[in-house]
């Protein structure tokens, strides 16, 4: 395990533990080491570990049982984003900055997904797309299905680091999707076009066309960015 400088913030410890959970090092139901053990192993103070665990608890990744310890609860991407519903809306600046990051990361991720995906992983992407279509038909925002789609693409890349990066920005993505969709859905034809853009990404991945998948993802994210600037 890495050693952290005690002057570093608790976010680094939280990110490390979250990565361990998402990667399966700590599976659901597993008991995490004590505050003292984690502090000694990671080379940080117990107060830093305590703050890190508190942030993971907010995300719904762990639960703390008095007298028993801290346990991993879940790390399903769909369940995690459900916890974001009570959080504050994202600001326009946060949305735009996040889109810049996502354009860089997710266009390449889509290419890898097209080249490496399995049939099972393709089914997961299709499942999310179907949920988006159902949300569109019922007039719902479909933000959870949107997140599920993008995370499924990341999972199909077969790159654990990319999956960890997606999970690390999941809170920001969750708030951003909800806020941006609330605004974009006021525009005529936008909801239908957003679905079509996701369908194009899916089709490119289904056909194992890396170039088209990368272009379709970039086109989608750039389109959202441009609409948010209007």
UniProtKB/TrEMBL annotation:
Taxonomic source organism: Aneurinibacillus migulanus (Bacillus migulanus)
Database matches in CDD domains: WHTH_GntR
Record bears the keyword Transcription regulation: yes
Superkingdom field: Bacteria
Residue ranges annotated for the HTH gntR-type domain, each copy included: 7-75
The name this protein goes by in its record: HTH gntR-type domain-containing protein
Keywords noted in UniProt: DNA-binding, Transcription, Transcription regulation
Stretch forming the signal peptide: none
GO MF term (any one): DNA-binding transcription factor activity
PROSITE patterns (UniProt xref): HTH_GNTR (PS50949)
InterPro entries recorded: GntR_C (IPR011711), TF_FadR/GntR_C (IPR008920), Tscrpt_reg_HTH_GntR (IPR000524), WH-like_DNA-bd_sf (IPR036388), WH_DNA-bd_sf (IPR036390)
Pfam assignment, any one: FCD
């Amino acid at each position: 395990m890495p050693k952290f400088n005690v002057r570093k913030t608790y976010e680094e410890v939280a990110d490390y533990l979250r990565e361990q959970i998402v990667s399966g090092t700590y599976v659901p139901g597993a008991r995490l080491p004590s505050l003292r053990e984690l502090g000694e192993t990671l080379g940080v103070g117990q107060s830093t570990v305590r703050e890190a665990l508190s942030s993971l608890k907010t995300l719904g990744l762990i639960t703390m049982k008095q007298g028993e310890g801290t346990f991993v609860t879940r790390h399903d991407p769909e369940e995690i984003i459900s916890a974001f519903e009570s959080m504050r809306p994202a600001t326009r600046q946060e949305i735009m900055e996040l889109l810049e990051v996502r354009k860089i990361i997710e266009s390449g991720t889509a290419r890898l997904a097209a080249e490496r995906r399995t049939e099972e992983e393709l089914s997961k992407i299709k499942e999310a797309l179907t949920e988006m279509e159902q949300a569109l038909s019922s007039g719902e925002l479909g933000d959870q299905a949107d997140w599920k789609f993008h995370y499924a693409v990341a999972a199909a890349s077969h790159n654990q680091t990319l999956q960890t990066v997606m999970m690390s920005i999941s809170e920001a993505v969750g708030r951003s999707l909800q806020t941006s969709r609330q605004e974009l859905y006021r525009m005529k034809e936008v909801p239908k076009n957003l679905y079509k853009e996701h369908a194009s990404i899916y089709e490119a991945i289904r056909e194992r066309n890396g170039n088209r998948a990368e272009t379709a993802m970039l086109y989608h994210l750039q389109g959202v960015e441009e609409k948010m600037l209007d």
